[in-house]
Amino acid sequence: MKKMLVEFRDFALKGNVLDLAVAVVIGAAFGKIVSSLVDNIIMPVVGVLLGGLDFTKLSVTVGKSVIQYGAFIQSIVDFIIIAFAIFIFVKILTSFMKKKEQPVEETPVPPTEEYLKEIRDLLKEQQKEI
After folding, report:
1. I need a surface site. Which of 1, 26, 86, 113 has the fewest CB within 10 A?
2. Residue 91 in domain
3. Under a CB-based contact definition with an 8 Å cutoff, are residues 82 and 38 in contact?
4. Does any domain span residue 68?
């Protein structure tokens, strides 16, 4: 049992697990921001463009049940905006990583310099022979 607790502690304290936990917390906070953006800015504008339609109040009553499809539409818009924001973030991040990984190319040596180096080396060899 003690070995299992030690293994769990080692697993939980690994950098990847902690990074994932931080990402989940930040993602949840980001989701709240996007939901607020959709609920308070985007959907009211869409509602005005559609003739004063308030999506939060769209519903259908079936028997004693109320189906709030307006809230569902808002959830879809939330998802699309969050997915697009994550896509843009990942795209920017990968472009930075690609720039960082690209090796610096050496400038090619002009042929005249190569010839001069060969002549120098030949002259050194001739002087050694003398």
Report:
1. 1
2. yes
3. no
4. yes
Tens digit of each residue's pLDDT (9 = 90 or more) over 25-67: 888 888 888 888 888 888 788 878 878 777 778 899 999 999 9
Read off the CATH number of the domain in which 69 is found: 1.10.1200.120
Coil vs helix vs strand at 61: strand
Rg, C-alpha atoms of the chain = 32
- The gap from C-alpha 52 to its chain's centroid, in whole angstroms, comes to 36
Q: Which of 50, 44, 99 is nearest to 77 (CA)?
A: 44
pLDDT digit string, tens, across residues 106-122: 777 667 888 888 888 88
Number of domains into which the chain is organized: 1
- Both tokens of 97, joined, read 């990583």
